[in-house]
Amino acid sequence: MQAEKEGLEVPDDPAFRFGDNDATGANDDRNGFQRLFRIVESGSAGFSCLYIKDRSRFGRFDDIREQFAHEYRLEEKGVRIRYLDEEPIDWGDNSGRSLGEQLFAFLRTGQTASERHKIRERGRIGKRDAVIDGSCPQPRAPWGSERWHWDRKGDRWVQPVESAAGSRRPGLVIGLRWDPVKSEIVREIYELAAGGMAQAGIATLLTERGIETPAGKMEWDRNTVGRILRHPIYKGDLVWAGASSDEEPVHFMTAKSHERYPIYYPGFAPGAPVSVELWDVVRRK
Questions:
Q1: Which residues 6+ apart lie within 8 Å of 220 measured at CB?
Q2: Rounded to an integer, what distance in angstroms lies between the CA atom of residue 31 and that of residue 205?
Q3: What's 164's DSSP letter?
Q4: Which of 75, 82, 67 is nearest to 25 (CA)?
Q5: pTM for this structure?
Q6: 151-179 pLDDT, tens per residue?
Q7: 225-249 pLDDT tens trace
Q8: Cβ neighbour number for residue 246 with a 10 Å cutoff
Q9: Which class is 136-284 in CATH?
Q10: At what angle do helices 276-284 and 180-194 cross, to 10 degrees?
């Protein structure tokens, strides 16, 4: 390990390992991240150096200053960070690189983070524009539907969208076209739920009938059924959360590109397999 090469002792204790494999690095509300700071700021860290593969593993913050602030909090408590893909800045000029070269590399890291933020922001705004314009922003269609190019003027389906990116074409939008066979299965799932059958029971029934799951497997479970029963697209309505899912959705006719509120687009997918009445019955269960 790099720490041992640099003459540091590495404790053989999982308490000294911090990770958030199941959480996004775009914010600091992560269990491992918060545990790290609780230990360090309590004064009982028991270590002086934190080895991290690269800066993105510490956090993918939109503002590089936020990352520097977290690093400073650790340094104040005597814990320095060592990013394994970077050479540490050697203020004694013993690294073979000039101090100017080291500082340039350090600042370049901040510039790279800023560029990543700009790219993400352009992508987010582009997807919001697509929704507002009536085009499906999702790379994959919900189970039971397919992504097709729709000609508004001709009021007709043109052809399936060939790639996941599915770039829009002049005069066309990307809509959702319902598969007649799978639509019947979706409707049956809702009718069974409305009749009082538990999600686990519905999953067992679908498995026994040899119907493939949305993931292409042959065994259904209650969670897969539950996701279908909660998805408003099956009554034809699209809710695009984008960057935030905690706020109340805004109607697509009043939504703005730069905002971060979820967008609500009623009637986005005409011909949906579930009626509003059936949807409401299931939601009340």
A1: 202, 203, 204, 206, 207, 211, 213
A2: 38
A3: S
A4: 67
A5: 0.61
A6: 988 899 999 987 765 556 778 899 999 99
A7: 999 999 999 999 999 986 555 678 8
A8: 8
A9: alpha beta
A10: 40
Q: Check: CB of residue 148 under 8 Å from CB of residue 157.
A: yes
- How many CA atoms, within 13 angstroms, populate the side-chain half-sphere of residue 274? 31
Q: Please answer whether residues 228 and 189 qualify as being in contact, where contact means their C-beta atoms are separated by less than 8 angstroms.
A: yes
For the stretch 60-85, what's the b/e string if a residue is b when 16 or more beta carbons lie within 10 angstroms of its beta carbon? bbbebeebeebbeebeeeebebebee
State which amino acid sits at residue 80: R
* CATH 3.40.50.1390 segments of the chain: 2-88
How far apart CA 171 and CA 153 sit, in angstroms, is 8
Pick the CATH number of 2-88 from 3.40.50.1390, 3.40.50.720, 2.60.40.1180, 3.30.43.10: 3.40.50.1390
Identify whether the C-beta of residue 60 lies closer than 8 Å to the C-beta of residue 25: yes
Task: With CA atoms as reference, report the closest residue to 45 among 70, 10, 77, 1.
Answer: 77
